[in-house]
Amino acid sequence: MSTAAADSAPTPGDDLYAVKVSVCPELRESLHLNGREKRGRMFVERDSKAMGDVQEFRQTLHDFFRALRKGEYLIEFGRGEGEEGEMRERVDGDEDVVRMFREAEERFEDAQGSGDEEAPKRPTAYVHILENPDFVKEEWKPEWMEGLKEKVEESQGWSMISFYSFPKKGISDPETFGENLRRVWKHFGALGRVYVAFEGVNAQMSVPTSVLPIFTDVCMEMEELACMENGINVDEVISREEFEKDRPFKNLHVRVRAQVLADGLDKGLDWENAGWDMTAEEWHNKVQEVGGEDGPILLDCRNDYETGVGKFVNAEPLGTETFKDTWGKLKERLEGVPKDREVMTYCTGGIRCVKVGAWLKQEMGFSNVGRLKGGVIGYDRMIRERGEGKESLFQGTNYVFDGRVGRQITEHKLGKCITCGGETNLLANCNNKACHKKMVQCSTCRKELDGCCGEGCKNVFVGRLGRTTSRTVLGKERVEFDPQVFDDVQGYCEEYSSGVGEIYGAIQRNTEKHLPTGAHMVSSGIQGRLLRTMAGMGGGRVLEVGTFTGYATCCFAEGVKRGGTVISLERDPKACQIAWHHVLAANEGGWGEGGRKIAERELEGGVGGTVEMGSGTTVEVRKVDDALVHLEDMAAREKEEAEGFDLVFIDADKGRLLEYVDVCIRNQNILAEGGVILVDNVLWKGAVVDADENMWGEGGEGDGGEEKEEKRLIKLNRRRRKLARIMHEFNGAVCRDERLEVTMLPLRDGLTIIRRR
Ligand SMILES: C[S@@+](CC[C@H](N)C(=O)[O-])C[C@H]1O[C@@H](n2cnc3c(N)ncnc32)[C@H](O)[C@@H]1O
Q1: Do 163 and 120 belong together in one domain?
Q2: Ligand 1 pocket residue status of 572, Cβ below 6 Å
Q3: CATH number at residue 206
Q4: Is the ipTM here above 0.85?
């Protein structure tokens, strides 16, 4: 049998032939290939059918380069890594396949005899996949696209919709599925915020009402969405005029996340065993029976700011700040309650109650759990459409997750204005994007404060409208930073950069599981992609200071040239163990699905080690007591023999960054000639911008007379300021150091590139 594997080898053995594959740019583009499918390596077992049968060989190719299944293409083989001008031959029939492997074997034998250290470890064939010029490409134009554009343009309304799915088998490749959703949905003029994860999909969107039935049909044709238990949940329809004045969603964002609904649980449950769905009508009747000794218990599973402005009569809010608080609150509330007592739960659109229901049943043992189908949105729709004079038992305003913020269902004013304390049912987010607090605020105060939560935010907001980016705190000028805009830009960059293999999702999830408090530290997103690229640019030797759970280590190992070396230093044994587990998983199963599956197993392996990967790259996770001391030792010990590193990534204790840079710069056996240093977190979430001593002033904090809001902001920022000041000082020092050439990139949390002048 032939074996195809992502670009890492199974255990090296004499019985494997390697096939290095590259795909031409035109095909990459037209087939929408993801990162790992553009080039890679697969293995074929000696004497397998794939070595002598062109159909079998193609089949083996398809196992790894899945997208090729869809396309018409030609195969050529060459004798090296595809340098310019290299002669290639077409692989049309079985004889060509036989010749390709025979030549690979001959080259291998010659190289063994030559004593060349660079010689490959096994016979290697070089294959290039290119477009078939004779193939007339059919334009991608599914039937549903016929006349769609015109229908979208004619639409007089936009439907606000939401839906979720938890497919039984999960979503094996969320990146690719997310790309596919984007590709399809853009033709509908759909906007919104959609999360895709291995566990499923969670979407809040607006879709032109004229094409909603077609949109629904197209979604239902996708296996990952066809399993939606409650279908598409339609909220209100907004007229064209209103929509154009103030769009609830401005763009279509499809984001890949570790979970579609972050629950903070350390294991997933069976989302199909989550109680039963109650129709809105059943619910309406049942709500009236709530209470008493034995009656149903009615729990509102939304957060404080949501329950504060609207809820069902007789409902008990759980009192959570975020969804992750739910489990503790449920335990508290239901302690001692008989397990067969009926428990009814509801949320906005239903997704939270899937997780709540599963937990109540599987973790707490309640047998009688009912959930409101379609949540408050579904109930409201029933009352409007089929309620026949029924009075809504949901009173007040339903908080929603788009620009509308709230939808008023009844006149009840359950909320208290955060500014004046008066009764109101109005909800909003603070207009200062950097704050964006969810708040209950009456219309008078909202008007007075320009839609902000307080005077401080108002100053920022009004200042920004006037296109200035500064405001005055304690009589001193501060420059403001807008994380919202910043995050959007980073997300956009990520969306339009090559994807990453599935193993990286597993690394993030494992980090959240085993070291949750540090989960934000992994170099994911756009930064991981840059590290992968940069690792391949130098001479192939990479040193990382601060491994944590090995995300960046894996990026380096994936990106570095064949035969390269990646060494990563870490002092925390737990982090070392997790990182080592990830390196071993990548080695065994590659960067894709295989690696992901192995990474998802229980942690195994010790606290570090060295492995030679199939690509010939050596990766080492080294447990050290202190990376700085270790580097100084390395510099002294290896003065003569060591060749130094082409890339040094400094991502450990922020207080000693200058010392790390210094030891690298002074020693060519640490930072090789022409090598570069990368330093992470140099922007410290933007706080460096106003971390300057002069701006913060000596007795600033706690001085009398300042506004209450300013005091609050300052307190909140105490830790952030301390680290911001450290980073700010570092930035100044390296910039002034005449030995160095420094370029700071506003990438993610800020990345500085340093090299010797
Ligand atoms: C920001 S995390 C590294 C993240 C990782 N580079 C990535 O991109 O995924 C910093 C790591 O440095 C480690 N660390 C901090 N000080 C250290 C020291 N003096 N020696 C070795 N490791 C250190 C911490 O234990 C932590 O795991």
Answers
A1: no
A2: yes
A3: 3.30.70.100
A4: yes
Structure tokens at 331: 């335990």
Distance 750 CA to ligand 1 centre (A): 16
Q: Are 30 and 23 in contact (CB under 8 A)?
A: no
Rounded CA-CA distance 364/343 in Å is: 12
Is residue 347 flagged as an active site residue?
A: yes
650 lines ligand 1 (CB under 6 A): no
The residue whose CA is least distant from atom 26 of ligand 1 is 548
Closest residue CA from atom 13 of ligand 1: 546
Into how many domains does the chain fold?
4
d(CA 318, CA 71): 53
Check if 552 has its Cβ closer than 6 Å to any atom of ligand 1. yes
Ligand 1 atom closest to Cα of residue 630: 20
How many A from CA of 554 to the centre of ligand 1?
A: 15
In angstroms, the Cα distances linking 662 to 267, 437, 631 are 44, 43, 11
248 and 291 both lie in a single domain: no
The CB of 16 under 6 Å from ligand 1? The reply is no
Cα–Cα dist 487/111, whole Å:
51
- Is 619 within 8 Å of 613 (Cβ atoms)? yes
Mark which of 680, 701, 724 sits at the end of a domain. 680
Last residue of a domain, one of 633, 655, 680: 680
pTM of this prediction exceeds 0.80: no
Q: What digits encode the pLDDT tens for the residues 499-553?
A: 889 999 899 889 888 887 777 788 878 899 999 999 999 889 999 999 999 999 9
Number of alpha carbons in the 13 Å side-chain half-sphere of residue 208 = 20
The verdict on residue 671 lying in a domain is yes
In 364-437, which ranges are E strands? Answer: 369-372, 394-399, 406-408, 415-416, 423-424, 427-429
Residue 471 lies in a domain: no
